Amino acid sequence: MKSVELSPLTRKLSAFVALSEVELAVLERLHQRRRSFLAGRDMVHQGQSAQAAYILSAGWVCSYKLQADGTRQIVDFQVPGDFLGLRSILLRTSDHSFEPVVDIEAAEVLTSDLLDAFAQTPRLATAILWAASRDEAMVVEHLVGIGRRDADARMAHFLLELGSRLALVGMGSKEGYDCPVTQYHLADTLGLSAVHVNRVLRQLRESGLVTFRDGHVTFHDYGGLVNLAEFDPAYLDQTGPLLK
Predict the structure, then answer these.
(1) How does 117-145 read in b/e, with b if 16+ C-beta sit within 10 Å?
(2) Nearest to 144 by CA among 43, 225, 230, 16
(3) Could you please report the per-residue DSSP string of the chain?
């Protein structure tokens, strides 16, 4: 049981519910089908049906939609502890693709596994629903960012959000975090060109707020970055009531 107790998903769900031994055992079973995927090769394709969901154990994944002209919009990044394709197995068809940013490890979760887990442990089902609702809230926030925030605030908000998400699973802090995404990934996420991303990151660095270099985000003035982005982490619900 020790491995699942230390897993990123367990750390994340434990912020919402005090997990019992029975619930930990169910989580352990959900982690049984462990798989590895190579960076740059889609693990789920847009329009694919009858696929499994995955629990990301190590590495980063981007979820994206392809346009008719071949360009893509990255919808979000998944970090350890996140579900991939949870909505797709319930709707039977994936409306977007998942691509590992780096080599990853994930647990494959079949629809039957998930439904059995929900039937056995309703509290665990509630916690997973909380995680899914949180993911939806982040997508809404990203839409607001692309539509209404200027480029500096958009970048600042996104870097702060990633930091908060990683802090929940013990992989980030107000000092910074490791981040394997490229400036091209950021461009496809934030609706900017790669040249504009480079310019924005330089401006934030020269303002003494944050540096993103060599796969690491370093916060120099966390409070100043929060003010610039008008970042309110309430939508992430990381300090909500713990269910006993």
Answers:
(1) beeebebbbebbebbeebbeebeebbeeb
(2) 230
(3) -HHHHTSHHHHHHTTTB---HHHHHHHHHHT-SEEEE-TTS-SB-TT-BS--EEEEEES-EEEEEE-TTS-EEEEEEE-TT-EESHHHHHHSB-SSEEEESS-EEEEEE-HHHHHHHHHH-HHHHHHHHHHHHHHHHHHHHHHHHHHHS-HHHHHHHHHHHHHHHHHHTTSEETTEEE----HHHHHHHHT--HHHHHHHHHHHHHTTSEEEETTEEEES-HHHHHHHHT--GGGG-TT-PPB-
- CATH 1.10.10.10 range(s) for the chain read 135-236
pTM of the model: 0.90
Dist. CA 215–CA 201, nearest whole Å: 13
What's the fold here for domain 2-133?
A: Jelly Rolls (2.60.120)
Q: Which is it for the CA torsion 53, 131, 100, 58, positive or negative?
A: negative
Q: Provide CATH 2.60.120.10 ranges for the chain.
A: 2-133
pLDDT digits (tens, 9 = 90+) for 93-137: 777 789 999 999 999 998 888 889 999 999 999 998 888 888 889
Instruction: State the CATH class of domain 135-236.
Output: mainly alpha
Q: Are 77 and 101 in contact (CB under 8 A)?
A: yes
